[in-house]
Design brief:
By secondary structure, the protein is α/β, with parallel strands linked by helices. The chain has helices at residues 44-51, 65-69, 73-78, 97-109, 125-128, 140-155, 176-186, 208-217, 232-242, 259-267, 278-296, 299-306, 310-313, 321-327, 333-340, 381-388; strands at residues 8-10, 22-24, 27-29, 33-35, 57-64, 89-93, 115-120, 161-166, 190-194, 223-226, 246-249, 272-274.
Length: 397
């Protein structure tokens, strides 16, 4: 299987960003762009597709520490990498310092990762109601214990460990500046901030000013910015606005793996941008499905998985409702090829309609939190006991 050819267009030549390669401990990421780990999205298949278009650091789906330590088959699949992935990057979720430490030690001792990231940004209720994700930095003692333990275990193998977090629980309970300092003092290799609170979920606008404040507060550790990067131009604007050392791209690349080619070109001062016609999008979609079959080793499971990508890939393109519905129920690769053959191969790139936000942003909502979580910045005995039993099964969502 080969990379999908995508037509390039010439945008007005941008000024080259004087942004050096991203240094994470002993690792050098030449293009300072990170694929945000997304559950059910950034598996080995999608990472390969993205890597074929541009450079960067490609992080696997979030995996729970408990599931990894217990060697659940699906957790081991989540952290699997292609042989040619230069940096095997894994993101862990956990709420218990002991379990997180054991998971990091396992990754290090068994040589399963070259970079480890800790998730403190997930806003999903099943995560936050257990005190995890974006709820966890509120408890500074628990946060410090997890990060310190994880860094210590990672350093045994000279593996750089980073964290990704949000601004806080809501606007009245912000945590990012304090959490950033705690993580820096613990020895993390970088801190990434999504400029939204847990309460915002993915709604509204990312607060790039908060990212700039964190960058200013942590001059001695790389800071990465995340939120509302839908194009290479957005990434350049974020860097100029915030002064970050690199960008983290999540929803913006859903259905657009070629975005990483745009990002690399932009950071290198080149004007080329990917503007795929409908035929090229169809080929990328089919290749994604093929790679999923290889990944899952199960055609039925792979085709069920590709269905959620239909709206993202074909956003803005002329694809009839009936055909979209069939694609969203496609049972086999053979049927998929037939359906894609019904598309107009001459249809060109639709412009702005294919750009911008992808998927559902949702609306602000009251965060789901453990009982009395906000009453103190420190854990009480009951919360400590509950946390030890609160790890989820496989993926944090």
């Amino acid at each position: 299987m080969t990379a999908v050819p995508i037509a390039l267009s010439e945008a007005p030549a941008p000024a080259r960003l004087e942004l050096p390669p991203l240094k994470l401990g002993n690792l050098t990421v030449e293009t300072p762009v990170v694929l945000a780990p997304m559950a059910g999205i950034t598996n080995k298949a999608f990472r390969r597709l993205c890597r074929e278009f541009g450079g960067g650091l490609y992080v696997a789906e979030m995996v729970t520490s408990r599931a990894l330590v217990e060697r659940h088959p699906e957790s081991l699949r989540i952290i699997s990498h292609d042989d040619d992935e230069k940096v095997r990057s894994v993101q862990l979720y956990g709420v218990d310092p002991v379990t997180v430490g054991r998971a990091v030690r396992m990754l290090v001792e068994e040589g399963r990762a070259d970079h480890i990231d800790l998730n403190f940004g997930c806003p999903v209720p099943k995560v936050t109601k257990r005190g995890g994700g974006s709820a966890l930095p509120w408890k500074t003692d628990l946060f410090r214990s997890i990060v310190t333990t994880a860094v210590r275990e990672a350093q045994r193998g000279d593996i750089p460990l980073t964290i990704k977090m949000r601004k806080g629980i809501d606007d009245d309970h912000l945590t990012y500046l304090e959490a950033g300092r705690i993580a820096r003092d613990a020895g993390v290799a970088a801190v990434a901030l999504h400029g939204r609170t847990c309460a915002q979920f993915y709604s509204g606008t990312a607060d790039w000013d908060a990212i700039a404040r964190l960058r200013e507060a942590l001059p001695d550790v790389p800071v990465l910015g995340n939120g509302d990067i839908w194009s290479a131009e957005d990434a350049m604007r974020m860097v100029r606005h915030t002064g970050v050392d690199g960008v983290v791209v999540g929803r913006g690349c859903q259905g657009r793996p070629w975005l990483f080619g745009d990002l690399q070109a932009a950071f290198e001062g080149r004007a080329e941008r990917n503007r795929p016609g409908l035929a090229a999008v169809a080929e990328a979609f089919y290749r994604h499905a093929e790679l999923l079959v290889d990944y899952f080793e199960d055609e039925d499971k792979a085709l069920r998985d590709i269905r959620k990508h239909v709206a993202w890939y074909f956003k803005g393109y002329t694809v009839g409702g009936e055909l979209r519905a069939k694609l969203a129920q496609v049972p086999t690769l053979a049927v998929l090829r037939e359906l894609l053959g019904e598309l107009d191969p001459e249809a060109s790139y639709p412009g702005a309609d294919a750009e911008g936000p992808r998927g559902r942003a949702g609306s602000p909502k009251r965060p789901a939190l453990p009982d009395k979580w906000l009453e103190s910045r420190s854990m009480d005995a009951g919360q400590t006991r509950d946390i030890a039993a609160a790890e989820l099964d496989v993926s944090g969502g």
